[in-house]
Design a protein that fits this description.
It is built from 8 helices and 10 strands. It is of the alpha/beta class. It has a single domain, classed as Spore Coat Polysaccharide Biosynthesis Protein SpsA, Chain A (Alpha-Beta Complex).
Amino acid sequence: MADRGAAIVGRVAGPDSPAADPRRGDPGARRRVPALSYFFPAHNEAENIEALVAEALAVLPTLAHSFEIIAVDDGSRDGTSELADRLAAASPGIVRVVHHRENRGYGAALRSGLRAARHPLVCFTDGDRQFRVADIGRLLDRLERPDLADVVAGYRLSRADPPIRLVYARLYRLCLRLFFGLRLRDVDCACKLFRRESLRGLTLESGGAFLSAELLIKLQERGGRIVEIGVPHHPRVAGQASGADPRVVVRAMRDFWWLRLRLWATRRAALRRGESILDPADPS
């Protein structure tokens, strides 16, 4: 992680602070970054994957001189896997696929995408097309500001989700703030940008929906800087969401309390538990 003064270590720039104002910056004046990895988890997204890859192939050249697109197929059974392989074959060296032979969960798919990424900047959205690839530009603009952020976390400007998911999200955000001091507006927004170097040495235990929060909690605990920027959120028009599945929620709550109890008991040991995000043998 980049050096920074003690006054800002481990702090989150709130969405209302000047540093996180989504209106700042001129997209027309945006400079392309040297290299960018973009990935998306996909579980039974056969109705979305072709359009998403086509969108990424059209937009990413405007954001980066060099880029890669990684589809993480999480044990799909609807043809997503075969479609992803065909898309990779059509764009060799640009589109790649990571396959899970069985459904391992959203967190495991994020972990696979982060590990597969090769470039210094890594971003992701979900495979359901509720975010536009072009809005990654907002995250890149925010990263260029002089406060040396390690992570730019999007927050949904107007959530296009069913009411039950909004209720879950509000309760979850409150619990994360009370028990972990993670003061983010939208922890699970699936539009984030990382400096890959900030992930080195970070270990995670969760394989489910809690992984995104665990990553940010542990990054903050070791002094990483997380900032926010607003991004538009669009209704899902194809496929079916699984985030409100009671089994997903129960698993996230279990992982939440395991981490909280371990941090109370032995903070250092808790921060070291789990599997490294990046390959320890990879020096890049």
